[in-house]
Amino acid sequence: MRAIEVLTAALLLVYPLAVWLGLNYLPPGMLAGLLCLLLLLRLVLKRQQLKAMVLPLLAGVILTAGSLLAKRQDWLLYYPIVINLTMLGVFGQSLLSGPSMVERLARLGEPELPNEAIPYLRRVTALWCLLFVVNGGMAFYTAHFTSLEIWTLYNGLIAYILMGMLAGGEWLYRTFILKKGA
């Protein structure tokens, strides 16, 4: 069971590469069917643990099943848009209802955060929201106006680099700049 969970998570991380490979090397419809099964499996295995991800997984199932039934392979390109919109919704809602998503994540490692940290964590959450807007916009743009190769490059590499830069840059700032000033 654990191996299946790891496999489905890994395959979802490389979704853009899988789409590129599938659209270039598999018979029409086969990729949509495989991705639909993968998303359904992920949904069933993780439904209790990933409540925030139920909506994007369901949307992915609908997109892949719809792609298969309608014979529209271009629908497979929309999944990164769904993921970014969902993450924007989750992070944005946390800004409205509190505590912010980054604060929630920070409290996993440090339950007793100082009150002074809360505004900073809200700003970082807002920065993540901005990144989801940019990535979602670029996912839309690349799905509609560029080649499959450019779509794959942005959604399968550049978007991950941007997220890594934000996460890593924030960690470096918090670890070396904020702690030095404290």
UniProtKB/TrEMBL annotation:
The keyword Membrane applies. The chain crosses the membrane at residues 28-45, 52-70, 76-99, 120-141, 153-173. Keywords: Membrane, Transmembrane, Transmembrane helix. This is DNA gyrase subunit B. The keyword Transmembrane helix applies. It comes from Shewanella amazonensis (strain ATCC BAA-1098 / SB2B).
